[in-house]
Amino acid sequence: MSSDYQGNKNKRVGFEHAINGVKEAIKSERNLKIQMVISVIVTIMGIILHITPVEWAIIIITIGLVLSFEIMNTAIEKVMDYLAPEFNSSVGLIKDISAGAVFIAACTSVIVGSIIFLPKLFRLFF
Ligand SMILES: Nc1ncnc2c1ncn2[C@@H]1O[C@H](COP(=O)(O)OP(=O)(O)OP(=O)(O)O)[C@@H](O)[C@H]1O
């Protein structure tokens, strides 16, 4: 079945839609802005503390995981707001579960960051 969007489908290259999605998510989601600032700070710390290539790979995967989960959470929130804008306990639960996935990814990133950075910071200051 074709929908109204089919007429606009070929006006942009595939990744342009994705870049637009990232921009829109950043505009509308405060948490995503905070996570991006934290990602920049972590990257600067990685440069200053001379982390190894393997540590860079782990940090980059972790940052990608958190940002991707937050963007997916934003998409789920938007779908739910579109389909059911009124108060609904099932909608609330779906959003809570989606936020839970971000929370798990964020906790993982804190643990990974601590394992990589804390010993280096400790050596720097003590
Ligand atoms: N339509 C709704 N019905 C019931 N509860 C809702 C509804 N919309 C949101 N909630 C509750 O409010 C919480 C926050 O939802 P909201 O859509 O405001 O996301 P947000 O402020 O961007 O939060 P997040 O930090 O998870 O991104 C949800 O996790 C849910 O518990």
UniProtKB/TrEMBL annotation:
Its main location: membrane. Pfam families: DAGK_prokar (PF01219). It is a multi-pass membrane protein. InterPro entries: DAGK (IPR000829), DAGK_sf (IPR036945), UDPK (IPR033717). GO terms for molecular function: kinase activity. Keywords: ATP-binding, Cell membrane, Kinase, Lipid biosynthesis, Lipid metabolism, Membrane, Nucleotide-binding, Phospholipid biosynthesis, Phospholipid metabolism, Transferase, Transmembrane, Transmembrane helix. It comes from the Bacteria. It is found in: Cell membrane. The chain crosses the membrane at residues 32-51, 97-118. Belongs to the bacterial diacylglycerol kinase family. This is Diacylglycerol kinase. The lineage of its organism: Bacteria, Bacillati, Bacillota, Bacilli, Bacillales.
